[in-house]
Amino acid sequence: TQSTWDLEKETVKTQLIAHDKEVYDIAFAQGTTTFASAGADGSIRHFDTRNLEHSTILYENPEQVPFLRVAWNREDPNYLATIMMESNKTLIVDIRYPMLPFTTLTGHTECVNSIAWAPNSGYLNQSRKILDYIYAQLEMIL
Fold first, then answer.
1. Mind listing the pLDDT tens digit for each residue in 58-74?
2. DSSP 8-state secondary structure symbol assigned to residue 21
3. Which helix (H) or strand (E) holds 116?
4. Which residue of 10, 37, 66, 130 shows the fewest CB atoms closer than 10 Å?
5. φ, ψ at 38 (rounded to 5°)
6. How does pLDDT run across 90-102, given as a tens digit for each residue?
């Protein structure tokens, strides 16, 4: 269960029941009305604050391994990075194509515990450069 609060009134606005297990992380996309959540049920869900009745499953782990963190690209809210529990992989999801990982970054030998996009991560609009760009940006911060 996720709760959204009206901070001015100091009351719960809505309780969202989307994940089947605990929610480990929530991140808002910059400049939009959307946010994503990472759950112990092995799913990443996408919400729009204008219609909290519904959510979209952006990705569901076939092995149901819990997702720990989500982080939006700061310049292009179509891209979301996420990590799984006890995994050395970072999954990049393009929200325009739910259920299909855009790419999986596998450069670490140990578990990844935190993720963040570089402040100057830029727009990912040239497909031939996307993977090199993502790797370069993530390497800068890891």
1. 889 989 899 999 999 98
2. S
3. none
4. 10
5. -110, 130
6. 999 999 999 989 9
